[in-house]
Design brief:
The structure holds two protein chains of two kinds.
Chain A: E1 12-25, E2 28-41, E3 45-49, H1 56-63, E4 71-76, E5 79-80, H2 86-96, E6 97-100, H3 112-117, H4 127-140, H5 156-168, E7 174-178, H6 186-203, E8 206-210, H7 214-217, E9 222-227, E10 230-235
Parallel strand pairs in A: 3-8, 3-9, 6-7, 7-8
Antiparallel strand pairs in A: 1-2, 1-4, 4-5, 9-10
Helix pairs in contact in A: 4-5, 5-6
Chain B: H1 2-5, H2 8-17, H3 19-52, E1 57-62, E2 70-71, H4 74-79, E3 84-90, E4 95-97, E5 99-104, E6 106-109, H5 111-117, H6 125-133, E7 137-141, H7 142-148, E8 155-160, E9 171-180, E10 191-194, H8 195-201, E11 208-209, E12 211-216, H9 222-232, E13 240-244, H10 245-288, H11 290-299, H12 303-335, H13 337-341, H14 351-378, H15 381-386
Parallel strand pairs in B: 6-10, 7-9
Antiparallel strand pairs in B: 1-12, 1-13, 2-11, 3-12, 4-5, 4-8, 7-10, 8-9
Classes of the chains: A alpha/beta, B alpha+beta.
Chain lengths: 236, 388
């Protein structure tokens, strides 16, 4: 069990209490997260570090509502998401969370703008409104001139920018990034980190970023280490 | 509709993923629906004859076979039967024009009786009188006149595959005296000669005719009148069998219909194979896109939404292939209309067939996509994202 690392004075947008996650491997239950408690303040930029298998991605998945905890409570922006039904959780994700993946996870057959438009298909926006939102998101990540390109026609860094545009196009409360620079060279990685910093500083997005890379973690305001299912913290 | 339309680029892009595989799948569906369209067109052509056949008309023919002839003397005896309005002899002429492949139905008949028996024939009065007055004249259906470019007054050297003239020639010079039409959908691919001229000029089978067409005054008595006619000639060297024109047409269709049933069975087998091909394609497609489906769910697409997307993709494939197949079936009907007109008038994709095919396309798409869509729906996001 680890004590809840204190959030800053700002309101906690993520409140985790006694979070346990176990997986079953055959007949054996493997405890990945062991009673975690954690607060993350609104507008914070948090780096989640730790060795492979430490449960970083599992924690990120739980915060993003992609998986369910075995026990404990998980509150995001005042909502207990572990109590939501599958359908409600999907709608909640669409409205409140933007995901950025290590491998970008763009749909290869769609152009950059169609990829960015995907989350907006679930909204009631009409075609013109969607077009404007997509254009704004692509402009923000500096890829307006690549809107009609397919992922294979883009560099890794550009693909990740499209991934970020897709994550922010719905103006979510939380941005969850799983090793966003893990598949990029240093220069492209730095550009992505600068972009994330800007989203945090200028647009007030709360960012939780899983990373192995200490260089990437330096850009965060707060670095949390996860090892063997428990937390410890550095202050940036 | 607008709600669904926004997903179309996503659906269409799925078909571009593996273009060769999509091409082969669509091609297999195309062929299945092409076969279906052609088979249904054939059935439609065969059945159209039954629909126009009159219930108040009887055919009296030789009891053994319609290829056996009957005495011409029967005509007056049949006419004397109570309830008979008109009687006309008819004989299969075996007509062709210029080339033996250009065959069409032609019958020597009694002109006035013929028109009384077929009141649906549309014919200007002056042409009718011209035909009655000229024993060498012929009544020609619009379809034949148009096909060979015949006009009123044209002399036509008609050939017969069966009948020779007294001089041994198989060429029968006739004059086009009247051109008839029929109400919408009627088959005007027929020619009628004067029975008198035929009887006088033919070399063989004098005093014999092919069969009689009889019109009765009351449809409800048609069966009884038929029995009465047959009873009159029972135990004679030329016993008869009388049935309604519609029953005759139906019995012909039933015989040929067996071919239709075989074709339908083949089409059903092709459909089943196509179903397996499409289901396999969709299953492969879903397997390959596991992580993408995981991403869609991550973005907020519900389980039902993912199920709907995969089903819609499957239906899109079957509808695309199906529409192309039905288009080609329709196109073949148009392209070969003139050739087929001779043997299968009315061979075409009917609106009913097209609507039915649309239902099949959607149904097959849904059936083929059900298992892959179910699997996609049940994907757990975390597991799906792990598979790359």
């Amino acid at each position: 069990m680890s004590a809840a690392p204190a959030a800053s004075d700002a309101r906690a947008i993520v409140r985790i209490r006694d979070l346990v996650k176990e997986y079953r491997r055959g007949t054996v239950a493997v405890r990945v997260l062991d009673g975690l408690s954690l607060d993350i303040a609104q507008g914070d930029f948090v780096a989640l570090m730790g060795p492979s298998g430490s449960g970083k991605s599992t924690l990120l998945n739980l915060i993003g509502g992609l998986d369910r905890p075995t026990s404990g409570s998980l509150e995001v922006d005042g909502l207990n998401i572990d109590q939501l039904t599958e359908g409600s959780l999907g709608r909640w994700r669409a409205d409140h969370v933007g995901f950025v993946f290590q491998m970008y996870n763009l749909l290869p057959v769609l152009t950059a703008e169609r990829n960015v438009e995907l989350p907006l298909l679930l909204t009631s926006l009409d075609r013109e409104q969607r077009r404007k939102r997509v254009a704004a998101a692509l402009q923000l990540v500096g890829l307006s001139d690549r809107a009609k390109h397919r992922p294979r026609e883009l560099s890794g860094g550009q693909e990740q920018r499209v991934g970020i545009a897709r994550a922010i196009v719905t103006d979510p409360t939380l941005l969850l990034c799983d090793e966003p620079t893990g598949d990029l060279d240093r220069k492209s990685g730095d550009e992505i980190l600068t972009l994330l910093e800007a989203l945090n500083d200028e647009y007030g997005k709360t960012i939780i970023m899983v990373t192995h890379d200490p260089h990437a973690a330096e850009r965060a305001h707060r670095v949390i280490h996860l090892d063997k299912g428990t937390l410890s913290e550095d202050h940036a | 509709m607008i709600g669904v339309a926004k997903y179309l680029p996503l659906l269409a892009s799925s078909l571009r993923r593996k273009r060769l595989r999509t091409f082969f799948t669509v091609a297999s569906i195309l062929i299945a629906f092409l076969l279906y369209g052609l088979a249904q067109s054939l059935q439609y052509a065969l059945k159209s004859g039954v629909d126009v056949a009159g219930a108040d008309r009887l055919l009296t023919m030789h009891k053994v076979s319609f290829t056996q002839l009957l005495p011409a003397s029967y005509e007056s005896r049949i006419r004397a039967v109570d309830g008979v309005v008109a009687v006309s002899p008819q004989t299969w002429f075996g007509a062709w024009f210029q080339d033996e492949r250009n065959q069409f139905p032609a019958f020597p008949s009694d002109p006035e009786a013929y028109l009384r028996i077929y009141p649906e024939i549309i014919l200007p009065e002056d042409q009718k009188q011209d035909w009655f007055a000229d024993r060498g004249g012929a009544l020609v259906g619009r379809a034949i006149a148009d096909l060979y470019g015949w006009k009123l007054g044209d002399q036509v050297p008609l050939k017969s595959a069966i009948w020779r003239r007294m001089d041994g020639s198989d060429t029968w010079d006739i004059t086009v005296r009247a051109i008839y039409d029929l109400p919408e959908g009627g088959d005007t691919r027929q020619l009628v000669l004067h029975q008198e001229y035929f009887e006088e000029a033919k070399q063989q089978a004098k005093g014999l005719i092919g069969w009689y067409v009889v019109r009765v005054d009351d449809v409800s008595r048609a069966q009884a009148i038929g029995k009465q006619i047959d009873a009159m000639f029972a135990n004679s060297p030329y016993e008869t069998k009388t049935s309604s024109e519609r029953a005759m047409a139906q019995s012909f269709v039933n015989q040929v219909g067996n071919i239709g049933a075989i074709i339908s069975a083949i089409v059903a087998a092709v459909f089943f194979t196509m179903l397996l091909v499409t289901a396999n394609t969709m299953a492969q497609s879903v397997r390959e896109r596991t992580s993408e489906l995981g991403v869609l769910k991550t973005l907020g697409f519900s389980n039902g939404g993912v199920l709907g997307l995969v089903l819609a993709e499957s239906v899109l494939v079957t509808v695309l292939g199906g529409l192309l197949g039905m288009f080609f079936a329709w196109w073949i009907g148009i392209q070969f209309a003139s050739t087929l007109e001779q043997y299968l008038p009315g061979f075409r994709v009917s609106p009913a067939t097209f609507l039915q095919s649309l239902l099949y396309m959607v149904a097959l798409g849904v059936i083929a996509g059900t298992v892959p869509a179910w699997q996609a729906m049940r994907l757990r996001i975390v597991e799906a994202l792990r598979r790359d």
